[in-house]
Amino acid sequence: MKKNLALIIGLLVVFSFTGCSAKDTSSSKSVAVSSQKVIEDSSAKQDKPSEDKDNSTKDQASTVKDTKEAEKPKEPVKPTAPASDARTSTTVSNKSTTSNNSTKAQPAPVVTNVSGKVIVIDPGHANRSNLEKEPIAPGSSQMKIKDGGGAEGVVTKTSEQSINLKVAFKLRDLLQSRGYTVVMTKTREDQSLGNVERAEIGNKANAALVIRIHADSADTSSAKGASMLVPAAINENTKAIYAASKNYGAAILNTMVNEVGMKNRGVIESSDMTGFNWSKVPVVLVEMGFLSNVEEDKLLSSQAYQDKLAKGLADGINQVIK
Ligand SMILES: [Zn+2]
């Protein structure tokens, strides 16, 4: 009898261990983090200050950061479905991607046959302003400063560049897990690049898309929501990329806004952004909400919200670049 009891207990112990180890294996398989094959921008090493936010042409670059453009939103543009390539088989790959993926994020259908497609991610601003000037467009005599500096959270005091960089990393991981090749223009807050230099990274990579990551700020705390800036057709470069940039920008913005559940301020054409005017490849700049708005400031500082933003951007990119 005692022997049997001991046997039963023994079996129970074995079973419970089996359960544990099963759990362990299942959790360990989610550690398949995407290989960090980021082509770290070689040019970023040169300690040239860069900028991000093209807008502040003025020298005391403080007040209106990203706001200028975003304050005059135009009508939202309907995304046009990317024609072509109906052959793309949209295989669902449920690889859990990053270690810090948001738990609630639902796995979206993922296009996996995008290898060879290069997405350049340009996280906005450095941790210092850069008042060096550069031509606003090829052949232009109009000079504009490289970086007026990022915005700051009205209550959290979080710096815009830190949020931009965090979302950029999350977006990079998501895109890599879906098969894209990702090039980051920078990976540290203290890297400051000019806008021409940033644009050249996209040009050299022959990027399918350059996405510039920013958060907005305004004088009025009531301003909120996301917008997408795209190049206006003003020179040879931007005429060639205007339509694609606008279509991509609209689709990506609408996807992100719908997934995150935020106000849609629409797509805005901009003719005075150096980083746009020098680009020979489709380029968009997302403003992910207002750091001058109490509610959005708090949200933008939260990791869960950053996860949602990154996923919305990745899903939007998936729709148009395939
Ligand atoms: Zn910015």
What's this entry about, in short?
The chain is 36% helix and 16% strand.
Report on the structure:
The structure is a single chain. The chain has 322 residues and is α/β, with parallel strands linked by helices. The protein has two domains: 1-30; 36-320, 3-Layer(aba) Sandwich (Aminopeptidase), CATH 3.40.630.40. It has helices spanning 2-29, 67-70, 160-177, 195-204, 236-260, 274-277, 294-301, 303-320, and strands at residues 118-123, 130-135, 143-147, 181-184, 209-216, 226-231, 264-270, 283-290. The strands form two sheets. Strands 4-1-5-8-6-7 form a six-stranded mixed β-sheet, with helices on both faces. β2 and β3 form a beta hairpin. α3 crosses α8 and α5 crosses α8. The N and C termini lie far apart (68 Å). Residues 52-53, 65-66, 124-125, 150, 160, 214 line the site of zinc ion. Residues 38-57, 65-77 have a biased composition (Basic and acidic residues).
Index terms:
single chain, 322 residues, alpha/beta, Aminopeptidase, 2 domains, six-stranded mixed β-sheet, two-stranded antiparallel sheet, 8 strands, 36% helix, globular, binds zinc ion, MurNAc-LAA_cat, N-acetylmuramoyl-L-alanine amidase, signal, hydrolase, N-acetylmuramoyl_amidase_3
Beta content = 15-25%
What does the overall shape look like? globular
Question: Can you list the strand order of the major beta sheet?
Answer: 4-1-5-8-6-7
Mean pLDDT equals: 77
- What's the assembly state of these chains? single chain
Question: What number of domains?
Answer: 2
**Structural class of the secondary structure composition?**
alpha/beta
Cα end-to-end separation: 68 Å
CATH class categorisation of the largest domain: Alpha Beta
| Second rung of CATH, namely the architecture of the largest domain | 3-Layer(aba) Sandwich
* Number of distinct helices: 8
Domain MurNAc-LAA: 199-318
Biased composition (Low complexity): 22-37, 78-104
Keywords: Hydrolase, Signal
Pfam family, one: Amidase_3
